[in-house]
Structure to design on (418 residues):
């Protein structure tokens, strides 16, 4: 260990985690703000609404697919170098987005931004967990992931406001400026932590053959399908209560975002106290229950707003504890890879929720039907989080779930095909 490196739990982790939170805020704002700017982008680039919407899709796909690859290949880098590189790629991608006047180049820039976002977030979570130490890991992860929920409450509305007052390009430049600021602060304040000195590429990708890691990923995927089915089609699901008023829809988004931030931070403390597995089971059961409640209240706006608040709390109590669980199954050299895989599973769930919802709406024309289907996905995720470790006698999984402490048990390998 060099004089600039830190021992887990002995560094001033809150201040450094706060900087990482600002980075995830920039990433989240970049992902959300484009949605509010699509109409302006469409007119400027002279493309269809569907083509403009691909700017959102390619960001998500690049994030989901390239994140684990980049995490694996940058495993030997110091966390400071990885974080600065990731946030710099995000800034560069946004700079190209704001400067380009050709649709193809703008589309490519979203791939660049998505790659940087994926690289940054995975490393930020792993770094915060390392800095805080084992006993405070849940709170540290929650603090960093809170940046994403804050971007929903503050970043996306602010970016949309900037876009309306000046131009969509200025909103994108705003995200790029925040990213550059974060890169400078990280370079100045974060020590050159190395989580995986000397690890080979084969060692870093070893968790891909660990069944416990794969089970966490399945739970994340199913949970996020359940979470984003009603969220993505909020305007259709609650059309009777919204009554076509954009202000009501904006208020529901705000309520969801504020509640999500509170839920995320609360889940971190609960994870440290009761264990990540219990929190995941409770949160996913909560998502299923709220979806059922929404069926009964979707006609009355005030009741819908209350349901959205509950939904925000339980929905954003899933990812942080899931990151806690998956880190506990990995060696230090694989921490960034597994957190990247878990985040990618969440993004894939978001994408599948959109696709499943579109199919259901095209076949049945009923947005209400999305709610029981979402409840079923969330309930199945809760069942798997509870049942899989028990069904296989996975003592390590029980240790992580009940105490929040990493296990000393060896990985549970998938059977060889040879």
């Amino acid at each position: 260990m060099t004089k600039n490196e830190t021992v887990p739990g002995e560094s001033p982790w809150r201040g450094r985690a706060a900087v990482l939170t600002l980075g995830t805020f920039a990433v989240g704002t970049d992902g959300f703000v484009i949605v509010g700017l699509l109409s302006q982008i469409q007119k400027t680039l002279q493309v269809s609404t569907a083509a403009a919407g691909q700017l959102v899709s390619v960001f998500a796909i690049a994030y989901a697919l390239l994140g684990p690859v980049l995490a694996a290949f940058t495993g030997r880098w110091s966390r400071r170098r990885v974080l600065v590189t990731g946030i710099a790629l995000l800034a560069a991608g946004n700079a190209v987005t704001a400067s380009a006047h050709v649709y193809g180049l703008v589309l490519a820039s979203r791939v660049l931004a998505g790659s940087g976002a994926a690289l940054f977030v995975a490393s930020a979570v792993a770094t915060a967990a390392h800095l805080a130490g084992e006993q405070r890991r849940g709170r540290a992860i929650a603090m960093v992931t809170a940046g994403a929920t804050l971007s929903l409450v503050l970043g996306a509305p602010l970016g949309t406001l900037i876009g309306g007052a000046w131009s969509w390009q200025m909103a994108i430049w705003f995200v790029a400026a925040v990213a550059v600021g974060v890169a400078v602060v990280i370079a100045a304040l974060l020590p050159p932590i190395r989580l995986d000195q000397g690890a080979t590429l084969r060692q870093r990708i070893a968790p891909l053959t660990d069944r416990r890691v794969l089970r966490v990923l399945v739970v994340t995927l199913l949970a996020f399908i359940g979470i984003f089915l009603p969220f993505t089609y909020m305007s259709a699901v609650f059309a009777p209560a919204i009554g076509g008023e954009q202000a009501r829809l904006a208020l529901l988004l705000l309520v969801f975002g504020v509640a999500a931030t509170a839920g995320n931070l609360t889940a971190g403390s609960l994870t440290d106290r009761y264990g990540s597995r219990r929190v995941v089971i409770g949160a996913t059961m909560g998502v299923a229950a709220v979806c059922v409640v929404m069926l009964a209240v979707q006609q009355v706006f005030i009741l819908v707003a209350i349901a959205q608040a509950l939904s925000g709390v339980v929905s954003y109590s899933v990812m942080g504890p899931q990151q806690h669980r998956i880190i506990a199954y990995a060696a230090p050299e694989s921490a960034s890879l597994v957190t990247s895989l878990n985040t990618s599973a969440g993004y894939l769930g978001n994408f599948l929720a959109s696709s499943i919802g579109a199919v259901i709406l095209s076949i049945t024309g009923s947005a209400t039907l999305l709610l029981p289907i979402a409840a079923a996905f969330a309930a199945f995720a809760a069942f798997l989080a509870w049942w899989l470790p028990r069904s296989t006698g996975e003592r390590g999984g029980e240790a992580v779930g009940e105490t929040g402490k990493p296990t000393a048990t060896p990985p549970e390998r998938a059977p060889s095909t040879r």
Summary: The domain at 7-195 is CATH 1.20.1250.20 (Growth Hormone; Chain: A;). Confidence is low (pLDDT under 50) at residues 1-5, 395-409. The CA atoms of residues 270 and 279 lie 7 Å apart. The chain has two domains: 7-195, 203-409.
